[in-house]
């Protein structure tokens, strides 16, 4: 009997979640007819009890915060009239669902989440940018790693409508929650990768994955991995002032190009 109830609950969540999400989007996050970039929310990945990836000299949560704060400052300096908000300014843990809901509540025009990558061995290198969208269950290594932060949250099952980061079936729900801003998200992600390449970085491309921090976005939203923590060269680059300045300028240039393209 208990098994039947659990099965019924999963089916209920499977069919109801997309409908709830669509209703939320249509009623509270309908894009304006004249799209303008006025507010950008920058999210420094991880934080507090969630350190993220670990390098030999640093932690992802700290590097992400440093870059996020510098990025916000440069966006406001180089793009007058654009307001920047942050999901965190200090070393604190913020539930993933709260991060994107902050952006939705602020009626943000762009959401950017800053992260550092990690992989077995020390040879992996380069940047990649992730958007929420369709994906294959066999390509979820990064998504599972990022979504593992959910397990540190209280009542994560309630907050994510029954989503379980350890259950592959749950990713089907995320794949159905198509971001109505997918096209713009992909455009922004592509511009970011192009700017990285201009600076001589290796591009690992654009990925579509079911990341919880992007799933409910009511605006173009991306998660950008600025380098590999387990690669000592890239870690040193990300720690350095020069490296952070380069990464920040890459992202500012991408946002500027995106802003010009959508505001025509």
Written overview of the protein:
The protein has 264 residues and is an alpha/beta fold. The chain has one domain (2-29, 38-262): 3-Layer(aba) Sandwich (Aminopeptidase), CATH 3.40.630. The protein is 47% helix and 15% strand. It has ten helices and six strands. It has helices spanning 2-28, 60-78, 96-105, 141-147, 156-159, 170-176, 182-198, 212-215, 232-239, 241-262; strands at 39-44, 83-86, 110-117, 127-132, 203-209, 221-228. It has a six-stranded mixed beta sheet, with helices on both faces. Helix 2 links the parallel strand 1 (39-44) and strand 2. Helix 1 (2-28) packs parallel to helix 6, helix 7 (182-198) crosses helix 10 and helix 9 crosses helix 10 (241-262). The chain is globular, with a radius of gyration of 18 Å. Mean pLDDT is 82; it is low at 11-15, 25-33 and 136-140.
Which term fits the overall shape? Answer: globular
CATH superfamily: Zn-dependent exopeptidases
* Sheet/helix structural class: alpha/beta
**CATH topology group:** Aminopeptidase
Figure out the total of helices: 10
Order of helices and strands: HEHEHEEHHHHEHEHH
How many E strands? 6
CATH architecture: 3-Layer(aba) Sandwich
Kindly report the spatial arrangement of strands forming the biggest sheet.
2-1-3-6-4-5
Average predicted local confidence, pLDDT: 82
The percent of residues in helical segments reads 40-55%
The CATH class, by name, is: Alpha Beta
Largest sheet: 6 strands, mixed
Low-confidence stretches: 11-15, 25-33, 136-140
